[in-house]
Amino acid sequence: MSPRTSSRTGETGAAVRDAASASVLPGIGLCAAITAVAMAAQAFEERVAGHPYVEALVLAILIGIAVRTVWTPDARFRTGIAFSAKQLLEVAVVLLGASLSLGAILASGPALLAGIVGTVVIGIAASIGICRVLGLPSRMAILVACGNAICGNSAIAAVAPVIGAQPKDIAAAIAFTAVLGVLMVLGLPLFVPLAGLSDNQYGVLAGLTVYAVPQVLAATVPVSLLSTQVGTLVKLVRVLMLGPVVVAFSLIAPRLPREPGTEGAGAKARPGLTKLVPWFILGFLALATARSLGLIPDTAVKPLTQLAGVLTVLSMAALGLGVDVRVLARVGGRVTLAVTASLAVLVAVSLGLIRGLGIG
Questions:
Q1: What's CA 306's distance to the chain center, in Å?
Q2: Which residues are listed as membrane-spanning (predicted)?
Q3: What 3-state DSSP class applies to 133?
Q4: Closest to 59 measured CA to CA, from 173, 159, 174
């Protein structure tokens, strides 16, 4: 190849890269603007109330939906919005692995550990059953079940790309799960007098039922320091279930029935590892393992977790921009009922675990 030809090839490649970058930047910029507003609103909540009642992740979806309702982004924005909703979300899932350590499992004790795992499994199975009885699509049922049983919005965001869920289903599951998450924070302390729970028992209940770690803090701090410590520990162990659950659903995904707008759901003969387990799940598990082995220093965990949080909020803004609120309204009643019933089952199972293990 002559120098002139090589130079032209290099110029062409650079032009293609520049065009690709330009095509995603407007959409990413729009999502970033929504993210900034959502995070500023959360910071205001924290300044006024001490903790966020509605997290930036949820606000980003709601703002995105509001923008989409009054204005439909044209072709200039769509590539960047799609990139933010998929690729940036996958990177965020990988980074979340750095915040998890297997030490939390060892500290919790075998009986409680087994109980947490059992509660998550029962919660997912019961929730999927409830959703299917109510006529929700299989992928929506999985999203609601994982959000309910593990860690709310983060679980929904992590499972969604594995099963090829539609943006409207993701947004609906997160939106209604978020509403009940706030109600849980406000209403769960009532179980202390109503069910006669000790501070330790209440901490276990909060850790098993409240969706997000910040919400666990909000629900337990008003009760006692012991409740906060126990609730946080149980919640972190529960979050550790996210990796195995996502891997499990990556194996199940090819067998899910086809739904309009979803990626291919038919199982293929002997798919490779990267088809069974997407790259970002392998990355998530690799970072979690590295963290458990002490290969990721403590000083690096907070920045990585913060970056993962920002990318997740940005991707949720993208999902909101892709949602037609009229479609969301059509499924709202059934989703609300499904999430409510699933949460009631989770609370009942958790109370049964507390009594069954004789937790004092």
A1: 15
A2: 21-44, 50-67, 88-106, 112-134, 141-164, 170-192, 204-225, 237-256, 276-297, 303-323, 335-354
A3: helix
A4: 174
Cα 187 from chain centroid (whole Å): 22
Could you give the CA distance from residue 128 to residue 136 in angstroms, rounded to a whole number? 9
In a domain, 112, yes or no: yes
* First-last CA distance in the chain: 78
Structure token digits, residue 90: 């996958």
198 lies in which domain range? 24-356
For 141, the token pair is 């049922």
Helix (H) / strand (E) containing 134: none
Distance CA 179, CA 224 (A): 25
Sorted by sequence, the CB contacts under 8 Å of residue 228 that are 6+ apart come out as 203, 216, 217, 220, 221
pLDDT tens, residue by residue, 89-100? 888 878 877 876
What single string gives the DSSP state of each residue in 74-107?
Answer: -HHHHHHHHHHHHHHHHHHHHHHGGG--THHHHH
**Which single residue is written with the structure tokens 């479609």?**
327
Alpha carbons 171 and 26: distance in angstroms, whole number:
22
Give residue 117's identity as a one-letter amino acid code. Answer: V
d(C-alpha 130, C-alpha 268), whole Å = 29
Q: Is 234 helix (H, G, I), strand (E, B) or coil?
A: helix
CA dist., res. 141 & res. 147, Å (int) = 10
Structure tokens at 161: 């790309």
Q: Are 89 and 221 in contact (CB under 8 A)?
A: no
Q: CA torsion 15→19→22→27, rounded to 10°?
A: -160
pLDDT digits (tens, 9 = 90+) for 22-72: 688 999 999 999 999 999 999 998 888 877 777 787 788 889 988 998 898
Which tokens go with 84? Answer: 């933010």
Specify the number of domains making up the chain: 1
Is 6 within a domain? no
Question: Is 176 inside a domain boundary?
Answer: yes
Within-domain flag for 9: no
